[in-house]
Structures are given as C-alpha cells and as structure tokens.
Amino acid sequence: MMVVGLVAAAVLGAAGDSADPAGATALPAVAALAAATLLVGLGGMPTLGTEPSPTAIGVTGGVWAAASLVAAWARAADQVGTGIGDIGVGQFSEVMSHGAPDLVAAVCALAVVGWACAHLLTGAVVPVQVVAMLGGVGLVAVAISAHPGTHAVMPVLVAAHALAAAWWCGTLAALVLTVRGRSGWARSLPRFSELALWAVLLLVLSGMASAVIELGSVTALATTGYGLIVVGKSVGLCGLVALAARHRITWVPAAVRHKSTQTQAIRRAAIQLAMMAVVLGLAVGLSVTAP
Question: How many whole angstroms separate alpha carbon 140 and alpha carbon 30?
Fold first, then answer.
C-alpha cells in the first residue's frame, strides 16, 4: 500500500510537471520508512501495557539496515549520475562524505539488531524504549535531509511531523503484532487512542506549517507537482482522521467492554493501517519532489 501511495505521488508530480518521485531511491526508502516506523511503535509498547517480541524487533531492524544501505547506494548513484550497478566504492564514499542520512539510519538499525541479539542470547536487560529512540533518530535524520528548506524552523517542524506520524502508524502496527486476546486489546487500545489524539494534532499542525513555508502561496497547491502531492496527502490524511474518529467512537468502547474479538480488532486495524500506508507512500514521494 505504501507503493500505491508512491505511485500516486508520481502521477500527481507528473501532473504538476515535477520530476518522477518514484525513482531508484524511492523504493528502498519506502521499505526503510516502514521498518523504522514499526520499530518506533514496538519500542513504545510498554507504555501501552504490553511487551514486544525481541525476535520481531531484530528482524525489523535487519530489514531497516538493508533498505537503508540500498537507499544510500541508490542515492549516491543518482547524485553521480550513473546506474546503481555502475557506481564505484570511491564515488560512493565521496558522495557520502557530504552527508549520509541513510548511513545514520543504517547505524541505528544495526544498533537495534544488536539490542535484539543481546536480549535473546545473553538476556541483557536494556529498556526496549531504546529501540524507539533509535528508530526516531534514524527517521529524523532522513526526514530532515529530504526537506532541507530555507527557514530556520523547518528542521523542527519536519522532525515533529515525522515522529508524530511514526508513533501513530507504528504503534498501531505494533499492537497488531503484539496484543492478543480481548483482554489485551481492552487494556492497550484505550491508552493508544488517548495518546493518538495528541500525535494526530501534532502531525496536522506541523504538516500545515511545513506546507505553508515550502509552497509560499495558495496557487502553488494547484500549479506545482509538490503542491498537488500535498493536496493528495492532505485528502488521504483527512480520510484517515475520519476513520480514526469513527474507531474512537465505536471500536474503543467495544474493546473496553470486551465485545470486540481479536479477529475484529485486527481487521479494523488492518484497514486503518492500509490507509496509513498510502499516506506514508505519498509522504515518501513528497520528500523527493522539489517544491
């Protein structure tokens, strides 16, 4: 579904005469974003009264590391102006010396894998919240580099936007992987819903402020590829917020009363996650489209 969002971004960007955002760096960036987002959610599970699987964390960290390294290599090839298979190690090193957010993400990902290995093999007790912190650091490093901007406040807005989106989407995905039984959902879902309200508020406000700074005018929403992708992303986010509000009114009370089965909970979460994935795909496309 994230690829669907990425393709939608490519179509909208082309309609506004912008370069195709679905380039060589976009697909590994999608995989890296998905993995890092899930790790932010898994690392925060104790806040919702449950514990994540160290194995799931280790596997997700490995996927994130691999995707980040591929994204770094593809980004270097794009900057050099050659194919992914034609760039040399020397050229890659030279490009990375000028800034390597994907390598920062890869280091964070490998640290997550190290956390999982230490937990599984030695029983080392390191708080799982460290995983969420590493996921957040890697996400912010990549997000800020993708939206450099010229305004001093842009890095703060981009970081807040990325972390709010990662917590909201990643935590819901982590709930699906972690929570079992009616009692588990009755315990965790209300707390998630309560915190999600603040995450969504931060997500919307930071996104609106970033768009205003980047676009500069209302007409740019309809005349540029970047503006059209912003419109598409905003429409998707509005639909997502409407669905989340409906779940807050119907699903959360049913879960609290133990009237929502595990199958029903996973089905509702899956629908919301599918919509989230499309919006995240649009976000990836937006990050590689010039304003």
Answer: 15
pTM: 0.87
Residue 106 CB contacts under 8 Å (≥ 6 apart), including other chains:
64, 65, 68, 69, 72
Residue labelled with tokens 């040399």 = 88
**Three-class SS of 76-113:** HHHHHCCCCCCCCHHHHHHHHCCCCHHHHHHHHHHHHH
Residue 114: Cβ within 10 Å count: 15
Report the Cα 48 to chain-centroid distance in Å.
Answer: 20
Residue 123 DSSP symbol: -
CA Rg value for the chain: 19
Whether the CB-CB separation of 25 and 6 falls below 8 Å is answered with no
pLDDT of residue 137: 94
Q: Say if CB 106 and CB 137 are below 8 A apart.
A: no
Residues in the chain, total: 291
Whole-Å CA distances, 213 to 63, 73, 143: 34, 30, 16
Residue 63 Cα to chain centre, angstroms: 14
Cβ contact 235:156 at 8 Å: no
Which helix H or strand E contains 232, and what residues bound it?
A: helix 225-256
281, 43, 123, 31: CA torsion to nearest 10: 10
Residues 56/126, Cβ–Cβ less than 8 Å: no
Sign of the Cα pseudo-torsion (21, 23, 27, 29, in order): negative
How do residues 36-60 score in pLDDT, each as one tens digit?
999 999 999 999 988 899 999 999 9
Q: Would you give the distance in Å from CA 9 to the centre of its chain?
A: 16
Tokens of 197: 């309200």
The tokens of 24 are what? 């060589």
The confidence score (pLDDT) of residue 173 equals: 94
20 in helix, strand or coil? coil
